[in-house]
Amino acid sequence: MRRWWLPAQLAARAGPGGLVIPRAGLKQYTQPPDYSGIIIPERTKLKFVDKVPSVPKVRREPRQLRDIRGPSQEATDFTQGQYGILALGGGYLHWGHFEMIRLTIGRNMDPKTMFAIWRVPPPSKPVTRKSLGHRMGGGKGPIDHYVTAVKSGRLVVEIGGHCEFGEVEAFLTQVAKKLPFPATAISRDGLEQMRKEEEEKRLNNQNPWTFERVVTGNMLGMRKYLSPYDLKLKGRYWGKFFLKHRV
Amino acid sequence: KAMHFQRQKLMAVTEYLPPRPAIPPRCLPRQEETRQEENGYARLLRRQVEEAFRDNRMIAVCQYNYMPGEDVVMMRHYLRKHNIEVKFFLNEIVRPVLSQSKYKNLLPLFVGRNVLLVSRETKAKEMLRVLKGVPQINLLGACIDDTILSRKGVEYFARLPPLEAAQGQTVGALALLPSQTSSLLQRGSVYLTALLDQHIQRLRAAETESPAEPGPAQSSG
């Protein structure tokens, strides 16, 4: 818990000789954080996630990597919690990842004052694997395991309750590093800040030539070398990667 | 997956260029950070300081060195008997209050550890006596009835006679002349009566000499 009862730091200004005399001024009391609007649900820990869905799929599905590409359209904003893990790239989460997230968060959080919820569905997409060492051909391999597709900009888990970002950030970054795609721990304010910064960057860009402009106008016949998806992706996404430094 | 070279070139051309103002911000004078919201507690203390300065006639600023707790209590007790209160205020609160009021010249006194002795009456003699017995507190200056006095000034002030005696003296000095007015006015008539008395005495003396014999005979007859 952040120690709100300790006074804020005093700025000691250096005197004429560069000498700083530490002196005690008026004690500034900081208000404790207000958790009035937060309701902690009954089941605070993350639910167990099945390896295989209850109705396993018979038909083997094509790869469809487009479920990794581009920005996410669902689960981009916070619902109940205040802090979460934001995916900054696309990828697949399998049961091992789910277990790791569940156990790490369950170990580090306080079930009485904090709660966590999944923002990602349990694995439903079947992934096939051919047995090792065989030559190409002979049809599609059998279903090996199930995964969930995560696009960039999607929240994976949400944490909430009577806690501050500082306490939660530690184990959330620990989890985020272990995910197959780049991810960060983030709070509501942090997300807002990020979006505002992106918008500002887009507005005060001094470069008159933007990817979007070139693509929509097909300048220099660039569309020959670009994909039709680039109209939507606008140069910020390349496959599963989210290029944060662009525009 | 590797990008086509043309695509790489396009990405390089359409990179983000941050804005470059004509004068870089680090050459401009530094903007002072916005003041933190005022502490209610600081406001209360400031109000208390203002009240102390308004209500009391005598305000003495003393340097406060370390004193054991019981000595502080004893000193406060002695001063309380003479209706003098001992107040502790933080310099960082007192300084802005003084700089905006009429007590600007007291500002140099509020540096370092200090204590305020305030009172409604101006009992400088008793205060000095108590402070003499406490070596850890040194009088720096005082403001008595809106007049700033130094340490010497306070000693002289203490040596002055009490207000009633001084008032009596002035009244006596002023009333000296009017008290003489009545005697002045009566002086003429008093002089005349004295002269007449003297004259009568001289006539009587002359009468008693000549009709000395028929006088007593007449009086007896």
UniProtKB/TrEMBL annotation, chain B:
Keyword Transcription regulation present in the record's keywords: the answer is: no
Query: Can you cite an annotated GO cellular component?
Result: mitochondrial large ribosomal subunit
Q: Give the highest taxon in the source lineage.
A: Eukaryota
Family matches, as InterPro entries: Ribosomal_uL10, Ribosomal_uL10-like_sf, Ribosomal_uL10_bac_type
Keywords, ordered alphabetically: Mitochondrion, Ribonucleoprotein, Ribosomal protein, Transit peptide
Location comes to: Mitochondrion
Q: Which family does it belong to?
A: Belongs to the universal ribosomal protein uL10 family.
| Protein name in UniProt | Large ribosomal subunit protein uL10m
Give the organism, scientific name: Cuculus canorus
